[in-house]
Amino acid sequence: MLRRLAPALLALPLVLACAGPTKLAQKSEEKLAGGDAWRAWQLATRALDREPGNPRARHAAASAGTMIVQEWRQKIHGLTSIDTLTAAEQVLELAEFRTSAVRYAVLPAGDQASIEEEQAIRYAAARIHYQRGLAARDAKRPKAAYMHFADVERYVDGYLDAAKLADNAWAKAVTRVAVMPFQSSGDAPIGREAADAWRDALTQELAPPQARFTRMLGADAVEQSMTVSQLRRLSREDAVRIGRKAGAQRVVWGSVGGVKSQTRLHLFHETIARRIEIRDPEGNTTTRWVDVPFEVVARTREVTVGMEYEVISTTDGATISHRQFDGSTMARVVWTSYVPEGSLDAYALVSEALRAANPDRARDVETRWKDTCGESTTLQQVLQARRSTSTSGRYQRDRLARFMVGAAFVFLEDLPPASDLALVAAAHGWQPLRDDLARFDSVDDVDLGVAMSGDPR
Prior knowledge:
With 457 residues, the protein is α/β, with parallel strands linked by helices. It is 49% helix and 20% strand. It is flat. It starts with a helix and ends in a 9-residue tail after the last helix.
């Protein structure tokens, strides 16, 4: 109830934002008199946040909180004969509200009948989930069983052997997933590196609480029993066998290939402006703009790579999920031989004078710059890259990390080969698999049509 009403509690008139604690307490009393206990509670607690010792606000909070508890108990009582589990959830939410309210007011525990009713509702809900947990366990649904036994503990701590049963169910419910090295075509074996990238990303993306039962196995657990040839080309049968030996319930077996590449050359040849300040003997400063011949060469390469994967059960080799799609990336390298002098802030694509005299010309220069260097790349960024570069502009593979993180441009003369950019595209293709694994996280094997361990099918 508290969570559902929270948005309404925020919808107070803006005029109250500057009201003092006593005024807020008065408004709380008025709201309570009108039957709006939740609004009254919000006003009173706001007053106490500003002045914890305000007696009028303290009394207003106690009065509003007491009415809330009374109304809540009436709702719980009405639900008892209709929906035990919904009533039990309300009991938990009421307990949460009373606990959070302690800093403002000590709310009454209620009469003996109310206390006994809430306790009876808790035990009834625990009993229902306990029985459902046993049924799920017997039906070979350990994930469902674990969730029911965990719910038992929410309602009644220490209920029968629910904690032990939850531990047993958890051990069977955990789904370990092994991402196997992908098969790759061509001379560059990028499949293993792409699989490493997927594994690292999914380990983070599917960490609790994002996923409750799914756990990604590390590379060592998967590759320690593989031959060198298997690291590059692995059969489906070997993938299942190796994954099973590593303790995985699922393996991801796939391929990377079919690389397509398109390269473009862009040239920006223009006169840019540099601001120079000249001081005369009297100390007066004169600012003028000087023209600087400037040339930038940019190269872009768009790469598309085909990807395919299959999520396979290691118990019976059944296909749980299969996808085939393309991944793509675009790389831009920028290079200039011009070495800037002095402050980089003194440089501009167009001078203030040119912009004022010929705005169309200024817009044309800026448009051609963006077409060459990219929408978000500035002149200062290129000049800073030139100044900071102490090596040649030839591509080395250790620069691939810049492209991997999606840099707007990299200051180089030449582009990475298509095979390296195919790795970038493939490495970022893990999102569909994440969605598949997240969707299956709480689904038991029998509901996926997969045999359980030890089930001959």
